[in-house]
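During the reporting period the student researcher (J.K.) took over the structure-prediction task from the postdoctoral fellow and processed the backlog of single-chain submissions. One of the processed entries is reproduced below for the supervisory committee.
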Amino acid sequence: MDPLLQLLRDNAALSPAQLAALLSLPEAEVTMRIRAYEKDQVILGYRTVLNEEKLGVDSVRAVIEVKITPEREGGFDRIAERIARYGEVRSCYLMSGAYDLLVEVEGTDLRQVALFVAQKLATIQGVLSTATHFILKPYKEQGVLMKPDRNEDRLAVTPVGADVRRLTPGVESRDLDSYRPATVGDDVRRLTPGLSLVTSTPTDPPP
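J.K. obtained the following structure tokens:
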């Protein structure tokens, strides 16, 4: 990716002058390239990440798992694009797995989100089912932490194998370094001598 785009993706508030200094390029060239990216729709927009809790904003957000029937011609695209056009929708993604679309919506209260699902989303032809999950609290938005990163809050790093040594006295480091599990249960037998595991294997049914 162009380093200019990487900088803008991380901090869209950087001015052309600041970008030019960081990239060691003339400011006029940076401005020209930004305008070209906007014209070609490589840059689609700029957004500011807000701490809505501090602003006292009363809004409700939810993510909705949507199962749909793909169309013969357009597949998932036509229905997904129709859903994405609703003003309540913040994002819409085609997903792998148990459902087809992941839709993030926002409303002023629970009722507005519920009405959107019941009256707009669920009534679209091709939508088979929905599962709504309300967002209770954000901790990170678009790569930005909602609270400043403090050193004392960082998770302690435990050396590999230290938890096993603590829970299984007598296990030496060399045992862990050379440990390579071969079959299901083999790792337990190695670290816990004397333990017998009974495993079942498919057998032919009795005559």
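The committee noted the following: Confidence is low (pLDDT under 50) at residues 176-193, 195-203.
J.K. will present the remaining backlog at the next meeting.
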